[in-house]
Every structure is written in structure tokens, then in C-alpha cells.
Write a structure and sequence with these properties.
about 220 residues, single chain, mainly alpha
């Protein structure tokens, strides 16, 4: 196993960076898009609510792999050609945003209505109240499911191997095909995924503790 690890190390070093970069980038972009979708879901405009609902329904109701394949193989039929990394990033972002929007929406809904009323009584408008009063509390409420989504998204990056992105799963397939030691390679890559997600779990826990102290 050690000999196999050393053989795969040059490829794994790059693949780990690609996996982490792809996962974190998709999560960050997904948070931005998800917040916009969540705000649309609670909007007073019926059309915005309907469009946001349809978006969440489609991307939560269909497999990520299908979405990824549609973007990479389907869009070129309409003249939209994207590279493997861009296709994977777009698919992961759209997929994550659908789930994160529900996390944000539940967090916003979990903020006591008295917070809104108190802010409005002080002359604060809707957006100022949302940004300065409601969202900080909503993020604290939504942080646990958002952390779980980040960990899930990091594992979902393995699907990028289906469109030739050379992340960790792709390297495991390549080394396994060259050495016929698939079991050891996939165990090794699985262990690396576990380490990455354990680090993310620790960061999430520390962040939850810090935010909780500010609201005690």
C-alpha cells in the first residue's frame, strides 16, 4: 500500500488541490446563488416565488450526474461548449444552490418576527433589516445544514471524473487501471476524502461555537 501511495503521490497532489478547489468554489458560488433564490422564495412577487420554486424543484429533483452530463454533453448541441472543469463547476454550483437556498430560507423563517417589527419601528427598511438584523441570525440557524451540504458537495466532486476532470476519483481509476490494484487505490482515495471532510467538520464546529457565543 505504501509503495502504491508513493507511486500515485505526484498525481494525487494535484488531484487533491483540484478536488478541494472545485468543492469550495462551487460551495461559495452556490451560497451566493442560493441566497438569491431564497430571497426570491420569500418575495412578495408571485412570479419570483414561482421561478425560484421551479428552480429548486428541478435541481433537487434530478440526479447531479444527469445535470453534469447534460451540461457537458448536451449544451454543445445548442452551441454552448464548456470545458470539463467549467462544466463540473457549473453543475455543482447549480445543484448546491438549490439545497442551500432551502437552508437560507429556513434560517430566515426561524428568525423571530419581533426582530422585523423592532427594526421597522426604528425606521429601518426591508433590505437594511434583512442585511443587518435578520441574515446574521439566519446564517447562525442555518449553519449546521449548510456545513453538511459543504461536506456532501466535497464528496459530490467525485462525479466530475465522468467528464474527465482529473480529481481524486479519476486518479484512482487511472492508477487502478495501470496497476490492477483498484481496491487499494479506492481505499486510499476514500481515506483522503475522509480526512478532508473531517477537517471541514472541525472548522464547522468551531464556527458554530464562535457564532453561538456572539448571540448568548
Amino acid at each position: 500500500m505504501v509503495e502504491l501511495f508513493l507511486r500515485a503521490l505526484p498525481l494525487l497532489e494535484k488531484a487533491v488541490l483540484i478536488t478541494i478547489g472545485l468543492g469550495l468554489s462551487a460551495y461559495f458560488l452556490g451560497c451566493l446563488l442560493g441566497l438569491l433564490v431564497a430571497l426570491a422564495r420569500i418575495s412578495s412577487f408571485r412570479l419570483l416565488r414561482w421561478l425560484a420554486f421551479c428552480y429548486v424543484s428541478v435541481f433537487r429533483g434530478t440526479p447531479l450526474l444527469i445535470q453534469l452530463l447534460l451540461i457537458y454533453y448536451g449544451l454543445p448541441a445548442y452551441g454552448i461548449v464548456m470545458g470539463p472543469m467549467a462544466s463540473a463547476l457549473l453543475a455543482l454550483t447549480l445543484f448546491a444552490a438549490a439545497y442551500l437556498s432551502e437552508n437560507f430560507r429556513s434560517g430566515i423563517s426561524g428568525v423571530d418576527k419581533g426582530q422585523w417589527e423592532a427594526a421597522w419601528s426604528m425606521g429601518m427598511g426591508y433590505w437594511r433589516t434583512m442585511l443587518r438584523i435578520v441574515l446574521p441570525q439566519a446564517i447562525r440557524i442555518a449553519l449546521p445544514p449548510m456545513g453538511s451540504r459543504m461536506i456532501g458537495l466535497m464528496k459530490d466532486t467525485s462525479l466530475a471524473s465522468t467528464v474527465t476532470v482529473v480529481e481524486m476519483t479519476r486518479v484512482a481509476e487511472q492508477i487502478g487501471a495501470a496497476t490492477f490494484r483498484y481496491l487499494e487505490m479506492f481505499l486510499l482515495v476514500g481515506a483522503i476524502y475522509w480526512v478532508i471532510n473531517q477537517v471541514l467538520t472541525i472548522v464547522q464546529t468551531l464556527l458554530e461555537d464562535r457564532l453561538s457565543r456572539h448571540f448568548k
